């Protein structure tokens, strides 16, 4: 029974005690499980003793089902040397300076979305969750891929959604560590969208490879070019074609779903907190011209977004496997144990937050945010495997929220009460319709 529950919505498995105790250890169907909500112990897992804690096999298996080609791993699911090499090759694309340069394109895409809304009658209803997926996909595609993925956005978004919906349900056979040759329902359902992505990615790589060969000076300086040029300066070895393809897929998946979910939850919360919506709007209206300066210039918009990610962390669970025995606080961690760090629980933990369930963006305003413990708030993870796109995500979110709030007011629809479900990211269980009114 519990296995099928896990396949439906694993977010509901947490009990009250997890929100009250700093560290809990016990045996489960996954073997020894240690659930850690104590900031210094989390620091040990992610940073001080990070070499002892690897991404665990169950998580890797779930992530790898989605990849179009099992021969190559993208940054999210790669380990060892492949991970190091890929991370080193791609990090230069995500420096604050490079990300700031994407500000104008991000603003243009957000303005286009609002233009489309404002062409409708005042008081129209938009499905904010779908709209945010479209917007973050447009931003990602235009910045990191120079719009090189062919097919229309609706296809990409639909296929990605199908894929995450199927692979994001933990397969009970995976949970039980059943032999690989047994058929898994989720893998069969993932086959068609996987195939779709495999073909679209191949075409995109072929076109860009030809461009780099024939007219390299005209090739865009983006993620795809960086992947194709990625050869490790220390070893001289490049990424294989399968690894390039896996990363294209990884960045499309990891790069728009997460921010889209975070933005939808933010707007959901703002639609029910008109005073915060108004404060954020006033700040957005007074923003400087250059969107590259917006994150620094809009502490309230940023605080609203960060508080929404506290309550609805887009990546609500992270896990690692202990390679050797260790101790977290005074709790022993045997070799092979799975350590779970769950922002969903950590961000609502009674020992770490006052009024944990309340939406209070003031926690993240300058003057207050400095007293938040670094390892009590982890929407982007921490340590060597921290989200490579964190700066990108914060900037696109602030730009998106500012562009929207400057021009529309959002009000909730009576009776709509979205419930979070876990499908790798924390999604709403249903659409989030909202009424929009021109400002
Ligand atoms: C609000 C938006 C986002 C959130 C909350 C988020 C969250 C996370 C988290 C928690 C991890 C670490 C997982 C772990 O340690 O097990 C991660 C890793 C990663 N994220 Fe994000 N992410 C977001 C946006 C993005 C964007 C915009 C991109 C790309 C443009 C991206 C690409 C990645 C990649 C490639 C990794 C794997 C990094 C590695 O293992 O070296 N993410 N993300």
Task: Please write out the topology.
Elements: H1 2-8, E1 23-28, E2 31-36, H2 39-48, E3 53-55, H3 57-66, H4 80-90, H5 96-100, H6 103-118, E4 125-127, H7 128-144, H8 153-167, H9 172-175, H10 185-214, H11 223-229, H12 241-271, H13 274-285, H14 294-297, H15 299-311, E5 318-322, E6 326-328, E7 331-333, E8 338-341, H16 343-346, H17 390-407, E9 408-412, E10 420-423, E11 425-428, E12 433-438
Parallel strand pairs: 2-8
Antiparallel strand pairs: 1-2, 3-5, 4-12, 5-8, 6-7, 9-12, 10-11
Helix pairs in contact: 6-7, 6-17, 7-12, 8-10, 10-12, 11-12, 12-15, 12-17, 13-15, 13-17
Name of the CATH first level: Mainly Alpha
Which superfamily, in CATH terms, is the homologous superfamily? Cytochrome P450
The CATH topology is Cytochrome p450
Number of domains: 1
* Order of H and E elements: HEEHEHHHHEHHHHHHHHHEEEEHHEEEE
The mean pLDDT is 87
Number of strands: 12
Number of helices: 17
Major β-sheet strand ordering: 1-2-8-5-3
Structural class: alpha+beta
Percentage of β-strand residues: 5-15%
Helical amount? 40-55%
Query: Which parts are unreliable, with pLDDT below 50 for 5 consecutive residues or more?
Result: 1-7
Describe what this molecule looks like in 3D:
This protein is an alpha+beta fold. It has helices at 2-8, 39-48, 57-66, 80-90, 96-100, 103-118, 128-144, 153-167, 172-175, 185-214, 223-229, 241-271, 274-285, 294-297, 299-311, 343-346, 390-407, and strands at 23-28, 31-36, 53-55, 125-127, 318-322, 326-328, 331-333, 338-341, 408-412, 420-423, 425-428, 433-438. The strands form four sheets. The chain has a five-stranded mixed beta sheet. Helix 6 (103-118) packs antiparallel against helix 7 (128-144), helix 8 (153-167) packs across helix 10 (185-214) and helix 11 packs antiparallel against helix 12 (241-271). The longest helix has 31 residues, at 241-271. The N and C termini lie far apart (50 Å).
